[in-house]
Amino acid sequence: MTRMLAIASGKGGVGKTFLAATLGHAMARRGRSVLVFDGDLGLANLDIQLGIVEGEDLGAVVSGHRTLSDVVVHHPATGLDLVVGRSGSGALAGLPDARLVALCAALRRLSGRYDFTLVDLAAGLDRVCRRLAAAAGRVVVVTNDEPTALTDAYAFIKVVCAGRLSVGLVVNNVENLAAGRQTHEVLANACRRFLGLELPLLGLLRRDPRCSEAIRAQVPYLDRFPTGALAADIEELAASLLREEPANCALGA
Ligand SMILES: Nc1ncnc2c1ncn2[C@@H]1O[C@H](COP(=O)(O)OP(=O)(O)O)[C@@H](O)[C@H]1O
Ligand SMILES: [Mg+2]
Q1: Which terminal CB of the chain, N or C, has fewer other CB atoms within 10 Å?
Q2: The pTM is what?
């Protein structure tokens, strides 16, 4: 069965792109075929994080010169297949809604060729985010413990997910696991009380200052620092998402 997950947050800078690339890598290391789609089309940076300089990008699809499958780029270092944007191209922002809907349908078809598809969303709650989240059907909301990140995560869950999409939480940048669980509790309580929604905790990712070192070097984090706490957290999240039976995909729906 194909699994498609949108990685969302509301707020920027909480680690969505890092998670999409690294979680995808962990799944690929477990022998799965994985597609990562860069849905942050205004400020795309999946390609930068992974050090991709050549190849076609989503801009060619938006301009009508290529189909989605034409612009898939294989990334040998991680084993991932990628559809990248190019930062500043503003590729999807001005796309008429009917074409955006068609692109989402094409993405769903393309995802049928993979075991897993991860969609790295832009910050915010705009039309593109909402359409891509709906196409995925299931959302992983990423937050950290800052009140701004929590407020924006709550807004995303309320506006985009509640009553429509399956949603779970990843708390990133946690000092320790107990603090991360507490952050989840805060948000889960608000969702239960005001939205009548259970927000399952999918994973906790510990803080690792070396994260930016891997990004700066454009080396996959799991290759550079395979034995640290954060690598273990990512591996655990990948294993748990891959373990799930299809019935569990309805969590929170
Ligand atoms: N667990 C973590 N520990 C330390 N730094 C992190 C962690 N996760 C992400 N980061 C850092 O956060 C920054 C923003 O990450 P990014 O993936 O670009 O966020 P987003 O896509 O949500 O805007 C990156 O510089 C990355 O190094
Ligand atoms: Mg990003």
Answers
A1: N
A2: 0.93
Q: Is residue 42 scored above 70 in pLDDT?
A: no
Q: Is the distance from CB of 71 to CB of 56 less than 8 angstroms? A: yes
Ligand 1 centroid vs 96 CA: distance in angstroms? 31
Q: How far is the CA of 50 from the centre of ligand 2 (A)?
A: 12
Is the pLDDT at 106 greater than 70? The verdict is yes
pLDDT digits (tens, 9 = 90+) for 121-135: 989 898 989 999 999
208-216 long-range contacts, CB within 8 A, separation 24+: 211/18, 215/18, 215/49
How big is the CA angle at 76 (ends 72 and 81), to the nearest 5 degrees? 25
Provide the pLDDT for residue 253: 31
Backbone angles phi, psi at 149, to 5 degrees: -65, -40
164 contacts 134 by C-beta, under 8 angstroms: yes
The pocket of ion ligand 2, defined by CB under 5 A, consists of 16-17, 40
Q: Identify the architecture of domain 3-244 in CATH.
A: 3-Layer(aba) Sandwich (3.40)
